[in-house]
Amino acid sequence: MLVREYIKDFNKLASEINFQSSYNEVTLKNKLLLIENDIKNISSFSNHFEIYNFYSNIYNILNQTKDQNSQLVISCLGVLVSSISSRNNEIRKIVCDEINFLPGILKLLVFAEENNDEKVIKLLSLLKELLVISNQVDEHNTKILISSLCDHISNNRSRKIVNLSLHVLSNFAIHNESAKYLIRRTLKTTEMQKELSKSDELIEMKFLAVVIGDFSPKEFPRFAMVSLRSIKAGVSSYETDTIHHSMDLLKHSKELSMNEHCIISEHEQITGLLNELNEQLIKQLSDSTTNSRKDEFFEKILEFFLQLLEFDNGLLSHFNEITKVIFSNVNHSRTASAMSYFSTYIKLNGTFSGITKSIESLIDYFSDFTNDENSKFNHNQKCEFLKFLKVLCDNEKLENTHCKILMQLVENMGSHIKSSTIENINEQTVTLTVYFISTLYALRKVSDLFTNSLDEILTIVILPCVIAKSYAIQDEDVLNVLFDVTAKEKFPREKVAKLLASNRQKSLQAFNCTKDHRQRHETSTSLSKYMNVQSYNEMTTLIEKINRKIENNKEGSLNASEIMSLYRHKNAYLQSHLDSANESLDRFADLCNKLQQQNSMQSKIGEKLELMNWCLQLDKEKAISENQVLRDTNRQLITSMASFESKIEKEFVKNSQAQKALALKTMEVNKLKAEKESMEDERLKFKLAQKETENRIQQLKKDLEQEKQMRAQEVADAVNEQKRFNEKRLAAEKENIKLQEVIKLNEKELIERQEKINQLENDLKEAEKIQASIMSLMQKANKRN
User: Fold this and answer.
1) Assigned domain for 101 exists
2) Of 252 and 623, which is predicted with more confidence?
3) pTM here?
4) pLDDT-derived band at 191, boundaries 50, 70, 90
5) Residue 259 is inside which H or E element, if any?
6) What is the structure's pLDDT at 510?
7) Chain-centre distance of CA 550, in angstroms?
8) Which keywords are on file for this protein (predicted)?
9) Does 410 reside within a domain?
């Protein structure tokens, strides 16, 4: 891939960089622009040193460049934003854990110029991601971060910067109680709260709810409608921030038990918006174009839908159509969030036409399991698919034809787990093994094909280590599954305890072979967690005691949480005896831990004192200003008291005169009061009359305006009528001319006809004469005969 070559070239140039040369900076900036576009798509690195060196060079550039507003610095920030938001765990680990970018980023944010919006936006985007997945921020950096963000909110006019700042503050407050307290204090002592209206309604609502605590059940319907509208508005651009805000507020609402009072499915407006959102999502799914933003968006939207179903399962029927469309789409139905949503959907007895085909498609896709580095399945996908299979078994959705397909998956995954050893077992292997065993128990109920696979996986060497590390992980979901598994039949409790005892020597050898001090310390810490349940006698006693309680639990008086608390109590008891049992093993590590704890405690105490001093300074400044106001008021009161005492002495001498004068003044005052009341009445009457006059004037203006409009319309109509009349008159004149011409032609023709008639009459007369002569001749002839 070209991006690897770009990284090599960048590392070579960065090692020889001269910050006095603008050519080098331009070349590096261009390389970074090429890397920024493609670094999200890197699945893995064959050379860890190369990529580590790349981010080290970026760290050096950010800390050594004199011009902090240069394009090179902005390009470095762009690469960090792309890296930390990628799905590559190796890159995220380097950026968040191995290289501490946070102090440098905070420094850049503090000294960022107000008019350099591009840089501030990239810094805030980086902090938005960095604070979610990095370690906890100390008190000193907390103070710097909150002060800087509040300044940007108060002084910046950019809506995007205000939104990002509130986003960072809200997410920071969710995971950090001291930050929440400090933000509240800052709100009281600054003008920032007045600037909250600059932000979007959803982020403002989240900030007030999470940080200030201004959120009640009455506010929930408004939040739901604002949330759905915001998500709907961002569908076309695949905006995920609104989904994050909505999920945080929904989670906050559930923590406040609002789901008991606010039933979403009973609000027609909210369900109507939800249906509109689903229709728009279906339209977007019909678009065949693919990009990473679209995939990420639909992952987040499914997480949001999952939270909605958990909040109110009465919404299930509203998700039938969108679920059908998503799970007929290959690109969006294979993710971990999609399978988690589908599992919950099936648990709630959700169904749609073609659900069996969608289940078969998922099983076919995951049946080709491999453990290669370039495998198409990540760890979360594997775990969610195993949980999905268990849900199918529990809800009787799995058929025999599915079981035959799953056999290859079970064999491949079982081989992968069997190949793990105590030395290379990690948290992912532990989690995968626990879910795999739980799923095998569920599959065995459906078909006997999985009996041998279950028996084999229960005899693996790493099983006791898996159990021990499961408690060390402290994941409630994993612990619940583990408790269910260990309580089932055929689980080798005694054998696990023996394996725990027999594998202790191998673990010690692995610890002693570790030469690096840091690795020795980490191995010692992990072994301490591993030894929590390692003692054979203690483990056997514990399991027997739990088994007896389970067998005697006929009336259901003992629940899972009580037995889990028994596990934890026993673990705490074993932990208290751990130091004496492993004194020779952990002496050096304990000493290092104590020294490190002392150093960290001293630094934390210093940071806490600094934070307290800073908070006290805020209180002190406020108290000084209030004290000054009180002093000024006190001086005025003392002066007034002295003058008042002198007046009392004078008035005491002239008491009688004062009483008379007081009576007169009282009469005058009463008279003035009466006059004042009458004036007030007159003033009120005048105001009413003035208001009526103003209203009348306004009404007359409106009437006049309407009259003008009517007159204008009438004039326009008259003009149009005149135009039409003129057109008709012209047409009539033309027609009249034509008629005159026709009349002339007719008159001429009439004259010609009259002449012809006269001619015919003359001819007739002549014919009559001829006839008369003929008749006379005939008469004469007859007479002769």
Assistant:
1) yes
2) 252
3) 0.61
4) low
5) none
6) 37
7) 44
8) Coiled coil
9) yes
Region for 212 from its dihedrals, namely left if φ exceeds 0, alpha if ψ lies in -120 to 50, beta otherwise: alpha
Taking every pair of Cα atoms in the chain, the longest distance, rounded to a whole number of angstroms, is: 190
Q: What Cα–Cα distance (Å) separates residue 700 from each residue in 133, 552, 686, 695, 713?
A: 67, 92, 20, 8, 19
Number of other residues whose CB lies within 10 A of the CB of residue 769: 10
DSSP annotation string for 158-203 = -HHHHHHHHHHHHHHHHH-HHHHHHHHHHHHHSSGGGGGGGS-HHH
Domain count along the chain: 2
Tell me which DSSP letter residue 86 carries.
S
Q: How far is CA 358 from the centre of its chain?
A: 28
Helix H, strand E, coil C: the string for 622-658 is: HHHHHHHHHHHHHHHHHHHHHHHHHHHHHHHHCHHHH
Rounded Cα distance, 96 and 129, in Å:
10
Tell me: the pLDDT tens digits for 652-692?
667 767 677 777 888 888 888 888 888 888 888 888 888 88
pLDDT digits (tens, 9 = 90+) for 465-513: 777 777 666 677 887 887 788 777 777 766 665 555 554 444 434 333 3
Contact 571, 471 (CB under 8 A): yes
Cα torsion angle, 189, 190, 193, 194, sign: positive
Average pLDDT, the chain: 75
Which of 350, 293, 294, 295 has its CA nearest to residue 322? Answer: 350
Indicate whether 638 belongs to any domain: no
* Domain that includes residue 64, residue range: 1-135
Q: How far apart (Å, rounded) are the C-alpha atoms in residues 259 and 167?
A: 25
Angle at 545 between CA 542 and CA 549, to 5 degrees: 140
Nearest to 70 by CA among 123, 16, 116: 116
Question: DSSP letter at 266?
Answer: G
Neighbouring CB atoms inside 10 A of 263's CB total 13
452's tokens: 């041998």
Phi, psi of 501 (to 5 degrees): -70, -40
pLDDT at 594 exceeding the cut of 70: no
Phi, psi of 238 (to 5 degrees): 55, 50
Task: Give the range among 221-235, 548-562, 738-752 with minimum mean pLDDT.
Answer: 548-562
Q: One-letter amino acid identity for 495?
A: K
Q: Give the mean pLDDT of 577-588.
A: 52
* Amino acid occupying residue 493: R
Rg (CA), the chain: 46
The alpha carbon of 101 is separated from its chain's Cα centroid by a whole number of angstroms, namely 24
Tokens of 174: 């969710």
**Boundary (domain end) residue, out of 467, 485, 516:** 516
Q: Report the alpha-carbon distance of residue 512 to residue 503 in Å, rounded.
A: 15
Output the six-digit token pair for 307. 């939270």
Q: Token digits for 536?
A: 């054979």
Whole-number Å distance between alpha carbons of 295 and 339:
14
Last residue of a domain, one of 111, 135, 159: 135
Q: CB–CB of 236/193 below 8 Å?
A: no
Residue 762 lies in a domain: no
